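Hey all, sorry for the wall of text incoming. These are the four entities for the joint prediction.
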Amino acid sequence: MRDVVKAFKALSDETRLRILNILLERECCVCEVMQALAISQTSASRNLSALYDAGFLKLRKDGLWSLYSIDQEGMKEYFPDLIKSVRKALEGNEVVTVDRERLKKAARVGPGCARQQRK
Amino acid sequence: MRDVVKAFKALSDETRLRILNILLERECCVCEVMQALAISQTSASRNLSALYDAGFLKLRKDGLWSLYSIDQEGMKEYFPDLIKSVRKALEGNEVVTVDRERLKKAARVGPGCARQQRK
DNA sequence: TCCTTATATGCGCATATACGGTTGTATTTT
DNA sequence: AAAATACAACCGTATATGCGCATATAAGGA
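and here's what came out:
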């Protein structure tokens, strides 16, 4: 029960749905998510963790990078098609499209990049 | 997008999952929900509204009673089997079983009943 | 070892949400 | 008409959540 609540809680936030959306495109590191959604590194990291804790993501480490991707098996037992449904539900959305465009230009550079942009 | 967030938010609460569970048994008025879950009338009413606003419930009026029931068509477009999945995910849960037992004994008497219990 | 970089985390603030108690409203019963 | 009722709305309070800032951790390279 707790787990089910946690899963839905993870999905009940716009930022996290947007993250799922770009991870449906491809595996990303934290700084790519940050760029694609134009959010802070803190927010990217924390929301990725939340989705991970809820069982929606896989984590793979590669040197300095934490690479997150959709865990297709994760929710299979009770919610087999949930992620597919989410994708469909977001389709055609303005923000979601922009995120995907920004993702194409995103590179694996981290908060340092963000700091420079600020100045 | 907002609607999707709202839908998941509605499902990300234990009380509301418990409400869905008993409504899967049968249509209920507010006071029956209140008895089945052993919660206050305020809480029952508010959480039913939330589920209704999110598109999971139908509302039918019969005299004094507001009768809520699962809206099978509600989420069909994007989340066709969501409610079925929720049922499966809750199956075997302790609380959920107790709720169903109490529902059997519940009658259509409202807050007046609760007020008497308090004294 | 020291420095840079990518990510994670503690903290404080603002806001959102849940709850109980009370009140309001409409409808039925007496 | 008055009382009882079923439900919804309002109010104050406690807790949860999200965010940014600053800092900690961890990995790799000079």
